What we know:
39% of the residues lie in helices and 21% in strands. It is α/β, with parallel strands linked by helices and 398 residues long. The chain has 2 domains: 6-153, 2-Layer Sandwich (Nucleotidyltransferase, domain 5); 201-378, Nucleotidyltransferase, domain 5 (2-Layer Sandwich), CATH 3.30.420.40. A hairpin with a 3-residue loop joins strand 9 and strand 10 (217-223). The radius of gyration is 21 Å and the shape is globular.
Amino acid sequence: MSHDTGLVLVLNAGSSSLKSAGFTATPAGPEPRFSGQMEGIGNAPHMMARNAAGETLADHRWDGGDAPANHAAALGVIVRGLDQALHGEAVLAIGHRVVHGGVDFAVPMRIDEATIAALERLVPLAPLHQPHNLVGIRAAAEHFPGVPQVACFDTAFHRTQGWAAQTFALPPHFYDQGIRRYGFHGLSYEYISRRITEEDPKLGAGRLVVAHLGNGASLCAIEGGRSRASTMGFTALDGIPMGTRSGQIDPGVVLHMIDTLGMTTAEVTRLLYNGSGLKGMSGVSQDVRQIEAAGTEQAERALEHFAFRVRREIAAMAASIGGIDALVFTAGIGENAHRVRARICAGLDFLGITLDPLRNAANALEISAPGAAVRVLVRRTDEEGMIARHTLDALRAG
Ligand code: ADP
């Protein structure tokens, strides 16, 4: 089959939602055709699908006993739904977002038995995410037998970081056995870096700090298109506060919780992954829209702390690459939450970061004040598009 035309499917199996997308392969690259999302798995699942024009293709809520109860069941529903919707149209390849590529996977990989075994060995490094990715790979292989599958890693983009950025201050044998900073959201950072380079090659060759602020959130320092530092570390728990995750916390607090407060590791895990961050601090929700609407003092303080931590890390990222030419906001909060962006940037004038309040409030593509030394940009991320591109490239490479 020619690798220049046909359909590329993308599966992005996250911890709370499952995203899928279809792209038409063209010689110039993948063109979006449809995208879908299932949320509320295990609770009250809701599935939506839209075509590239934004028209609704499917909108289904389950309220009875036939609701998919877990990720495996939900993936089965999605993969069967895709299969039916394609009316026999051939699928060229399937690309998967895989959270952890460990030390070895620095580029996307064609999936075979050996790759699956290697990904299974990485489960202990990302126990809450990697198993979902593997379930997606197996479901796709079962429903689309013989169709090439490609794994695209969230960690891969960061493998260009130097040793000093990747190591913890531990004896070297820990680094050698893989206990190091990996960094995540790599597909989003790679997309943003490429997009900025396409728009403005000189800026793309410079120093970018990208703030990916969604339910998961992190920052990345990119120099000349290469990741040099990021706020996430060994797991996707490190760095800035997130929707429900704590972000960076003194490891002594974890020891204290276990040794003195008598919490089990399972309880600490639940607290740090699911009960902290914006949700835990605000006592309202993980969603910035609801926290802003609540207007309570506790909600206000959660937003204040979030902005403080992101601001601090923007400066740290800039320091790791010797300066900053542009700050790029992306993902749900970064793209939409203008009050949060204003709060983050207040006090960064010393770095040359000054916002234009009206452009910021309008979610404009460029929100820096005229004449400011650093350009501040807002861009929509496209992890699925990045996966489709990698998948086609891997297919064409053979
Ligand atoms: P995920 O990491 O799950 O892909 P997203 O990147 O979609 O998450 O970000 C989701 C978050 O973005 C929401 O929880 C909410 O906090 C924030 N968000 C989305 N839209 C808006 C908006 N219009 N105003 C403020 N915050 C928003």
